[in-house]
Design brief:
Order of helices and strands: HEEEEHEEEEE
Shape: globular
Helix content: 10-25%
CATH topology: Trna Endonuclease, Chain: A, domain 1
Number of helices: 2
Distance between the termini: 33 Å
Structural class: alpha+beta
Strand order of the largest sheet: 1-2-3-5-6-9
CATH class: Alpha Beta
CATH architecture: 3-Layer(aba) Sandwich
Radius of gyration: 15 Å
Strand content: 25-35%
Number of strands: 9
Largest sheet: 6 strands, mixed
Length: 142
């Protein structure tokens, strides 16, 4: 069970988040190799001779600082295709709505044990997410 793809949300958030991710990766010494839309990683970069796959998404309900009442970061189960393709060698960057901060979550953290249903207004009954405790993620100020 998954929420249907919403083109208008993709159009609004995908390019700005990718641009911010490229900026962040370049600041960290990555050479950007590919940002073309191909249904897989948003950004392919290289650092120290190692290819790095990165995925950006925006959590629109996260406005400025991370709310203390949110114990976990949820990443949709549909992103598992990236873990499968890149053998967990993919990093997920979950940005706030202003793109001023993001959580970095490594693919190796997204295990089957962390995949479970979630509940919320915008979540379909039975839809699964990876539930990552925010204390296990790295907060990056962009």
């Amino acid at each position: 069970m998954r929420k249907p793809f919403e083109q208008h949300l993709y159009d609004k958030h995908d390019n700005p988040a990718k641009e911010k991710l490229v900026e962040l990766l370049e600041r960290e010494g990555h050479t950007i190799r590919n940002v073309s839309e191909n249904y897989y990683a948003d950004v392919v970069s290289e650092k120290g001779g190692i290819t790095v796959y990165s995925e950006a998404e925006v959590k629109t309900a996260w406005k400025d600082t991370w709310p203390e009442t949110w114990a976990e970061i949820r990443i949709p189960e549909r992103k598992k295709r990236l873990l499968d393709k890149y053998d967990s060698n993919v990093n997920f960057y979950v940005f706030n709505s202003s793109l001023s901060q993001c959580w970095l979550i490594r693919g190796s953290q997204m295990t089957d044990e962390k995949l479970k249903p979630a509940f919320g207004r915008q979540i379909r009954k039975g839809e699964k997410f990876f539930h990552i405790d925010y204390t296990e993620a790295e907060l990056v100020v962009v």
